[in-house]
Design brief:
Length: 176
């Protein structure tokens, strides 16, 4: 697995990079050498925030944790991603390394994590989608009181999603 460490408004020390490399070896049994892990670090007031994103053949796993130290945050982020993998293991077996679940050394804490075998879709909504700018989409999203809004971007013709971030700002998701 390739590991990319990014420090937001801070310099990432080499010993921290080595620690991340050592701890992320846990995922070698699930992912091949093509997988990429992105570790983004930032400091917020008296705490440290770590975002761990693992990309493997188009499938993304993500965890965001705020803790006292980056070490504690990494441990918690690893556990979150392991829970995601365990919860969806049947659906993920084709995308993960073959035999990833064979020696199932994950049974100790996985008893509490029921595997999600079927997604219960309660409602399907349809709506007329006219082209609009991202700012118009955000306005519509806010008027509806939603956290995200799918729209046809008038600026580039792509299907896009506007969403409200935890920090109060907005983001746009677009296909490549």
């Amino acid at each position: 697995m390739k590991i990319t460490t990014i420090g937001r408004q801070m310099e990432v020390q080499e010993d921290l990079k080595l620690l991340f490399e050592r701890k992320l070896k846990k995922f070698d049994k699930f992912f091949d050498d093509e997988a990429t892990a992105y570790v983004t670090l930032s400091k917020i007031k008296n705490s440290e925030r770590l975002e761990l994103t693992i990309s493997n053949h188009g499938t993304m796993f993500r965890a965001e944790v705020t803790a006292e130290t980056f070490n504690n945050a990494l441990d918690e982020a690893i556990e979150k991603i392991l829970r995601q993998i365990r919860k969806n293991k049947t659906k993920l077996e084709k995308q993960l390394r073959s035999g990833a679940f064979a020696d199932e050394g994950m049974t100790d804490s996985s008893a509490a994590d029921e595997e999600e075998t079927d997604f219960n879709i309660k409602i399907v909504k349809t709506f007329d989608m006219r082209p609009m700018t991202p700012s118009e989409a955000i306005l519509h999203m806010n008027l509806l009181g939603h956290h995200f809004y799918m729209f046809s971007n008038a600026e580039n013709g792509k299907m896009s999603v506007a969403y409200k971030r935890d920090d109060g700002d907005y983001g746009i998701i677009e296909p490549m």
